[in-house]
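Possible regression after last week's pipeline update?

I re-ran a chain I had predicted before the update to compare outputs. Posting the input and the new output here so someone can diff against the archived version. Not blocking, just want to make sure nothing changed silently.
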Amino acid sequence: MLRPLGLEKGKAFKPNARQKKILTDAALVGEAMAKANSADRRFAGGKYRPDAHWDFALQLDADDPGAFWNLLDERASWFYEAVGAGAAMAPKRPGPSSAYLSAYKDKGGHWLDGGTSYRLRVPPHAPIKLFWSVTVYDVDTRALIRNEQKIADRSSRMDLRKNEDGSVDIYTGPKAPAGFEKNWIPTVPGKNWFAYFRFYNPTEAYFNRSWPLPDFEEV
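New output (post-update):
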């Protein structure tokens, strides 16, 4: 596929001025396409539930993982954000695995903003045998968010403050909410971000989608 562009093993790559411009423009457009493909997924069956903006981050069929390589848009969406993929990262039934949901928007459908404070209320009885976690990433780098506190995630393994009904409020924003410092992930004004919610060893309520996961809600 690269040979018509002048990229071939063992041969020097010598694009002329016209080719350089085309390839430079293509790289910029290609990244914009990949970013849009990740931030606003529109794949069939890609939504975890219709009542929130959480999508399945990796749409790899664990029963037929080889088919994933022919799904160009789905692959581009995942690999723009991530490094590796495996069937155990997109399980279809309970067992030793990890499942990933992603969110780029808040309850109102607005892009998640580092200068805004949000609450994510994680309902009780999460469908996991091990633990769950919420991780915040920088939209531009797709790496863990960089903040002064060096905190990018909160998980059920930590000593988090719980509500009376067993739910857990995770807060994101530039300032920690009073009394919920242990539940806070600091964000940076001027930086957009997205989140992954991970289920380690998910149980049936994840697969039948009976366990709801609300949106990040502005506070």
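Follow-up from reviewer: compared with the archived run. The two ends are 49 Å apart (CA to CA). Marking as no regression found.
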